[in-house]
Structure formats: structure tokens, C-alpha cells
Amino acid sequence: MCELQDGYARFRETVYPDKAPLFSRLATEHRPRALFIGCSDARVVPELITQSEPGELFVVRTAGNLVPAYAPGADGVVASIEYAVAVLGVSDIVVCGHTACGAMTALAEGHDLGAAPVIADWLRHADAARARAAAAPAVSGPARVTTLVRANVAAQLQNLATHPSVARALAEGALALHGWVFDIASGTVETVDDAVAVA
């Protein structure tokens, strides 16, 4: 906790003074240009990777960068997507997976999640990704995880398109979806081109 408090003190002393006009404007204005859906993994920081200023990204982070397919009812991820698209009017959504993802590793290697039933249930949102990866040419070792990470980004883009606000914005040409895989070791981003059909 001391590190967090020290970080806040540095923010107030050295960062905030230079950005005070920005924060003053942001106190009354919220117009992010993109929704960034990434993994909760502490090594993957959307604002750092994209070099975005406060207020430029609307960020949703979930274990495994999973996006549940649309279903009626209250859900924090679904509500955040709808807010970003229907209220804030973002023009782009990025779904960003990453190398060495713990969620995808657990699935690719068949880890026993019996002691973590909530995690096991959440990871069912990656079933389509597992099917996509299984249809790919056979790979083994670390390549299995990498294949699943890529397949998962593509599958989550498809899930995203099932959300009414997203489907509407896609049909109107007001929104574009993008798939990324961030390589932690090299700091590079690979795009996942998986066209989402617009009805």
C-alpha cells in the first residue's frame, strides 16, 4: 500500500501540475474516442500501450479480455459497452488479447479450475475461441496458447457484434471493431483481422 500512496504523492507533486488544465476540462467533458476492451492482467496497460491521455479511452478490463455475447439483464460488461457506444458515441472498439495470458493458458493447457468455479464459469465465454483454435493446424507447447489468444480475440469481436448498440452502430457505419494481440516481451501489437459481418 505504501507504494500506491507514494505513487499518488508523486502524481500530485509532479504530474498533476503539468496536466491541471486537462483535468479541469475533463471535470466537465467526457468524450473518449475509443473503447478499449483488454485483459485484467496487470502487465497490459491500455493507456501506456496506446500512449493515451486521460479522457481519450473508455476502458473495460476483464479476465481473458472476454466479452459475453449479448443477453438481456444487468451485466457490468454489457452496460459498459452500451454506454460507450450508445451514450459516448465512441467510433472504434479495440479488443486486445496478449501473450502469456493466464486465462488462455488455463484453457489451452486444461488446468483444473475446480477450486475456482466462478473463473471456470467466466471462461465459458471463450468456448467459441476454443473451437476456433481446435480448427487451426495442430500446434503444441507455447504455440497452443498463442493460437488460442488470437482465436479468442476473433471470437470476442464476434460476441461484441451481438450487442444491439454495437450492431446498430456497425450498420450505420459509425463504428469500427479492431482486434489486437499485445506481445508483452517485445512491446509489439499484432492485428487480428476477423471481419465482423454487418446485417
Structure description:
This protein has helices at residues 2-26, 46-50, 76-87, 102-108, 117-122, 127-135, 142-160, 164-171; strands spanning 34-39, 57-62, 92-98, 176-183, 188-192. With 199 residues, the protein is of the alpha/beta class. The chain has a 5-stranded mixed β-sheet with strand order 2-1-3-4-5, covered by helices on one side. Helix 2 links the parallel strand 1 and strand 2. Helix 3 (76-87) runs parallel beside helix 8 (164-171) and helix 6 (127-135) crosses helix 7 (142-160). It is globular. 31% of the residues are buried.
**SS strand fraction:** 15-25%
Number of strands: 5
Low-confidence stretches: none
Number of helices: 8
Write down the overall mean pLDDT: 93
Radius of gyration, whole Å: 18 Å
Task: Please give the order of strands in the largest beta sheet.
Answer: 2-1-3-4-5
- N/C terminus separation: 50 Å
Percent of residues in helices comes to: 40-55%
The dominant shape is globular
Biggest sheet character: 5 strands, mixed
Order of helices and strands: HEHEHEHHHHHEE
Alpha-beta content class: alpha/beta
